[in-house]
């Protein structure tokens, strides 16, 4: 029973949102002057989602933020490339 529980916990954690500091820049495409502000905005949302996922996994075993569609990893990676982070 313990191996199944451990496997379930690992699977849930794998589905959690990535904290914005851990997201690497991707290819810069369609860059705009407002990308820096948008990056700050999405990074705050992503950090909140990662925090909520951790709490959700702890309490009910489900990363609620990621399930609700609040994971912006790809967009943050693009914006980081545009602003040079």
Summarize the structure.
This protein is mainly α and 85 residues long. The protein is built from four helices and no strands.
Which stretches are poorly predicted, pLDDT < 50 over at least 5 residues? none
List the total number of helices.
Answer: 4
| Overall average pLDDT | 82
Radius of gyration: 15 Å
* Sheet with the most strands, sense and barrel status: none
Total separate domains: 1
Structure description:
The mean pLDDT is 82. The termini are far apart. The radius of gyration is 15 Å and the shape is elongated. By secondary structure, it is an all-alpha fold. α2 (35-60) packs antiparallel against α4. It has one domain. Helix content is 64%, strand content 0%. It contains four helices and no strands.
């Amino acid at each position: 029973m313990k191996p199944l529980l451990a496997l379930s916990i690992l699977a849930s954690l794998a589905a959690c949102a990535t904290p914005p500091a851990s997201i690497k820049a991707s290819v810069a495409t369609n860059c705009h002057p407002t990308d820096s502000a948008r990056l700050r905005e999405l990074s705050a949302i992503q950090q909140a989602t990662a925090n909520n996922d951790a709490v959700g996994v702890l309490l009910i075993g489900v990363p609620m933020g990621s399930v609700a569609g609040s994971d912006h990893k790809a967009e943050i990676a693009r914006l980081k490339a545009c602003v040079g982070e």
